[in-house]
C-alpha cells in the first residue's frame, strides 16, 4: 500500500465498485479500501443471491418510489439510469433478463457474477482493492489532504488522499460490513446524519396466526395500514407469512411507515384484502352464488376455492363455523363474517426485525449538504458520498441498487475530472 493516493474510495459495495471504476484516470493513483475479507458481501447475497439489479419503470415513476427525496436523484438518473446500467453490465460481461414486476436480474441468476465483473474491470484498470483495510478515522491536514487512520490486516496504518468518496453503506446486514462508519466520518466534517432505522424489513405480528400459516405466499392482495381506526396507506402486490410475522414486497415497502409508527408508540394494525378485485357487494354475490350452486357441499370444501389450503384451518378457527356444515345451512351472518375476513383479514403489528434482516437503512447523511449534480459535499471540498450512506431509500424492486450505482457513477465521473497538479 502506498502512503498517498489521488483518489481513495472507502467501501467496496456496489457504490464503491462503481465509483472506483468511473474515477479511473491514467494520471491518478486510485485505491478502493474494504474492511471485510471480500468486496461486496451484501451485494453477493442480495435478492437471495440473484440480485435484483434495477427496474424497468420510467423516470417519473421510478423517482416516486423514493418519495419526496426522489427529487435528489433526478440529475444522477439523467446521467446514468436503468438501461444505461443494463448496457454497462452487459459490456462488463453480465447479460441480464427481465422478470415479473419489471425487475432485472443477471441471466445466470448469480449476484456474484456482477461482483466478479467489477473486480475484473478494476484489475484491468490496475486499481487495487485492498481488503481488511478498516478506516477508523478520516480528517484533513494543514495542506488540505485527507488523512485516513486505519487498520490493515489488524495492523495500524495511515494514508493520505487528495479526494475521498465514502461508499460505506448504512446499517443493514451488519455482518456484511455495513456498521455505520460512513456516518461517523461524515459527522467529522460537520455533516448532519438524520435518524436511522431499519427499512425494507419484515415486521412482527401478535399471536400465532403467522406461525400457523408460515411460508404461505399471497399474490395480488392489498395490504392496508391502520391506526386508531384510520387507514394510513395501502399497497397492492405480493406478501408472505413468516414464523413471527409477515414479509414480501408490499410488506417491505410498507415497513418504513410501520417502523416509524411503532417508534411513535402508535397502535398499528394491517388488514389483508384477499379478494381486492371484488368489492364487498360483488364478493357477497359470488358467495351467494357458490352457496346456491353447491348447496349440499360442506363449508370446508367451499373454502378450498377461496383460500390457499394452509389457511383453511385458520379461517375455520376464526369463523367458528362447523367445517362439515352444508352450504345451504350457512346463515347470512356467517356469510358476512366470511366476507369480512376475506376482505379485511386483521393482524396486529407489534415490532420489526433488526438491521440484521433489513435490506436498506432509512436515514443517513442529509441530502441538503450534498450537491446532487456532483455528489460532492457542500461542506468539504473533494469529499464525495454515494450509495446507501445518503439519506435516500426507496421501495423494494431494484430501485435502491439503481440509486447506489447512479450516485456512484456520478461521483466517480466527477473525481475522474479533478486536477491535482497544484497539490
Annotation keywords:
single chain, FAD/NAD(P)-binding domain, elongated, 7-stranded mixed sheet
Shape: elongated
CATH architecture grouping of the largest domain: 3-Layer(bba) Sandwich
Helix content: 25-40%
Number of domains: 2
Taking all Cα atoms into account, the compactness measure Rg is 25 Å
Structural class by secondary-structure content? alpha+beta
- What kind of sheet is the major sheet? 7 strands, mixed
User: Which consecutive residue ranges, at least 5 long each, have pLDDT under 50?
Assistant: none
| Strand portion | 15-25%
- Helical stretch count? 14
| The named CATH superfamily of the largest domain | FAD/NAD(P)-binding domain
Molecular structure report:
The chain starts with a strand and ends in a 7-residue tail after the last helix. The protein is of the alpha+beta class and 423 residues long. The chain is elongated. The protein has helices at 14-22, 41-45, 59-64, 74-79, 82-91, 111-124, 181-188, 209-212, 249-263, 280-293, 299-304, 309-319, 332-343, 399-416; strands spanning 4-10, 30-33, 54-55, 96-99, 103-106, 129-130, 133-140, 146-152, 155-166, 197-199, 203-205, 217-227, 230-241, 245-247, 268-273, 345-352, 360-362, 383-385. Helix 1 (14-22) links the parallel strand 1 (4-10) and strand 2.
Amino acid at each position: 500500500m502506498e502512503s498517498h493516493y489521488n483518489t481513495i474510495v472507502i467501501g467496496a459495495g456496489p457504490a464503491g465498485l462503481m465509483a472506483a471504476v468511473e474515477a479511473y484516470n491514467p494520471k491518478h493513483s486510485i485505491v478502493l479500501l474494504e474492511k471485510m475479507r471480500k468486496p461486496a458481501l451484501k451485494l453477493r447475497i442480495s435478492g437471495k443471491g440473484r440480485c435484483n439489479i434495477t427496474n424497468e419503470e420510467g423516470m417519473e415513476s421510478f423517482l416516486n418510489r423514493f418519495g419526496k427525496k426522489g427529487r435528489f436523484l433526478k440529475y444522477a438518473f439523467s446521467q446514468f439510469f436503468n438501461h444505461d446500467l443494463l448496457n454497462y453490465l452487459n459490456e462488463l460481461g453480465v447479460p441480464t433478463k427481465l422478470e415479473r414486476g419489471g425487475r432485472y436480474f443477471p441471466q445466470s441468476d448469480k449476484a456474484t457474477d456482477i461482483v466478479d465483473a467489477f473486480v475484473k474491470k478494476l484489475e484491468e484498470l490496475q486499481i487495487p482493492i485492498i481488503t481488511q483495510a478498516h478506516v477508523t478515522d478520516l480528517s484533513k491536514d494543514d495542506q488540505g489532504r485527507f488523512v485516513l487512520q486505519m487498520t490493515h490486516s489488524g495492523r495500524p496504518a495511515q494514508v493520505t488522499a487528495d479526494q475521498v468518496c465514502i461508499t460505506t453503506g448504512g446499517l443493514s446486514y451488519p455482518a456484511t460490513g455495513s456498521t455505520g462508519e460512513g456516518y461517523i466520518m461524515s459527522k467529522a466534517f460537520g455533516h448532519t446524519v438524520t435518524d436511522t432505522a431499519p427499512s425494507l424489513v419484515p415486521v412482527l405480528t401478535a399471536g400465532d396466526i403467522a406461525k400457523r400459516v408460515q411460508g404461505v405466499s399471497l399474490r395480488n392482495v392489498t395490504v392496508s395500514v391502520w391506526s386508531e381506526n384510520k387507514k394510513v396507506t395501502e399497497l397492492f402486490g405480493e406478501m408472505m407469512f413468516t414464523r413471527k410475522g409477515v414479509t414480501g414486497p408490499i410488506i417491505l415497502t410498507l415497513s418504513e411507515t410501520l417502523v416509524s409508527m411503532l417508534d411513535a408508540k402508535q397502535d398499528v394494525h394491517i388488514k389483508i384484502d384477499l379478494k381486492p378485485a371484488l368489492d364487498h357487494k360483488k364478493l357477497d354475490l359470488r358467495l351467494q352464488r357458490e352457496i346456491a350452486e353447491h348447496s349440499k357441499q360442506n363449508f370446508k370444501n367451499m373454502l378450498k376455492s377461496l383460500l390457499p389450503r394452509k389457511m383453511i384451518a385458520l379461517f375455520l378457527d376464526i369463523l367458528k363455523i362447523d367445517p362439515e356444515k352444508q352450504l345451504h345451512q350457512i346463515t347470512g351472518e356467517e356469510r358476512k363474517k366470511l366476507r369480512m375476513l376475506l376482505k379485511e383479514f386483521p393482524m396486529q403489528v407489534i415490532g420489526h426485525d433488526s438491521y440484521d434482516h433489513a435490506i436498506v437503512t432509512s436515514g443517513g447523511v442529509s441530502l441538503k449538504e450534498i450537491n446532487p449534480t456532483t455528489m460532492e459535499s457542500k461542506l468539504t471540498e473533494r469529499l464525495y458520498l454515494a450509495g446507501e450512506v445518503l439519506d435516500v431509500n426507496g421501495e423494494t424492486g431494484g430501485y435502491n441498487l439503481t440509486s447506489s450505482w447512479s450516485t456512484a457513477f456520478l461521483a466517480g465521473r466527477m473525481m475522474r475530472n479533478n486536477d491535482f497538479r497544484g497539490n
